């Protein structure tokens, strides 16, 4: 899968999810709130950017802490930006852009935040380098992203059906640390935390993934639609993994902070 196709797919997936995103994004709100609780806005910092702002949950929290400093909200999907602008029409500068190609001046920011968005970027080392370019000396990058322990139950269930990759692959904390170091960042903090969410049925989990735009974008994913038989077998395998009637999904969240 080429980078161009990947970007097109990401833009389409999240653009289509914008209208109903907030109704299914409870995890994103929990993680965004914890990100700021762990790595709060510095009162001495300059302008603040929210990369992959989505419908603006983290943007609103940052705006409340900005103390009249400029706040930039960037997203690759225009419908997401439009949803964010509807919530925060004043005080935020909205930019429709790819996080891997930041249209921001050198050393123009004091802090960059991102909540569960950077896992969709194809070239994290390049992104970390560009974020470093856009931050002033001493600036902070703080983000939350999915780790490899995310949706392990769903991965295991699909593994009982076929050999394709049905769940997106995510990098580890060790890989992120190495990539940040290679891009010239100073050592910061990387904390892993696993969230668990419960669903009445596997179908509810699948609807949530669709609702937040988290489609399978792996190059080795199965091409063509999943058949009803395959979906039935996956659901049966998932239910067999559960110790009781509950359907549980795990999400490994990596909270990361690094300094320019």
From TrEMBL:
GO terms under biological process: biotin biosynthetic process; methylation
InterPro entries named in the record: BioC, Malonyl-ACP_OMT, Methyltransf_11, SAM-dependent_MTases_sf
Domain of life the protein comes from: Bacteria
Pathway: Cofactor biosynthesis; biotin biosynthesis
GO molecular function, one term: S-adenosylmethionine-dependent methyltransferase activity
Domain Methyltransferase type positions: 50-143
Keyword S-adenosyl-L-methionine belongs to the record: yes
Keyword ATP-binding (UniProt): no
EC code(s) of this entry: 2.1.1.197
Catalytic reactions of this protein: malonyl-[ACP] + S-adenosyl-L-methionine = malonyl-[ACP] methyl ester + S-adenosyl-L-homocysteine
Keywords: Biotin biosynthesis, Methyltransferase, S-adenosyl-L-methionine, Transferase
Stated role: Converts the free carboxyl group of a malonyl-thioester to its methyl ester by transfer of a methyl group from S-adenosyl-L-methionine (SAM). It allows to synthesize pimeloyl-ACP via the fatty acid synthetic pathway.
Family per similarity comment: Belongs to the methyltransferase superfamily.
Protein name: Malonyl-[acyl-carrier protein] O-methyltransferase
Organism: Methylomonas koyamae
Species classification: Bacteria, Pseudomonadati, Pseudomonadota, Gammaproteobacteria, Methylococcales
